[in-house]
UniProtKB/TrEMBL annotation:
Compartment list: Mitochondrion membrane
Biological-process GO terms, alphabetical: proton motive force-driven ATP synthesis
Any one GO cellular component localisation term in the record: mitochondrial membrane
Natural source organism: Eremothecium cymbalariae (strain CBS 270.75 / DBVPG 7215 / KCTC 17166 / NRRL Y-17582)
Protein name per the record: ATP synthase subunit g, mitochondrial
UniProt-listed Pfam families: ATP-synt_G
Record key words, sorted: ATP synthesis, CF(0), Hydrogen ion transport, Ion transport, Membrane, Mitochondrion, Transport
Amino acid sequence: MSSKVQLFINSATQRASLFYSKTLYFGKVASELTKTVYFKEGLQPPNLSDFELVYWRLYKQFLHASARPKESLALVRGVTKNDWIRYGSYGVQFLGLYSLGEVIGRRNVIGYKNYSA
């Protein structure tokens, strides 16, 4: 019994270590790629006033919606069948693009390659 537990713990430790190392590696790759794009495109963070304006508007809209829940529910109930179909098709398109990105990132249609061997 104890050998099974020890084997399970060793396996879980190896998987966690592999997951951590892959996460760390891909995080560093993403940060370097982001840094390169940031400098090549000449991007800069938004001004503080723009940032405050956007989040202040969101905060006011949230307060307005929470103060009048019946109006908020009426907006949700007012969505027509055509709107649901349109938003559903957008969701399917986003899911397809996400899945395509996953396949490109894995370089394999099903599963991940085992790089530890």
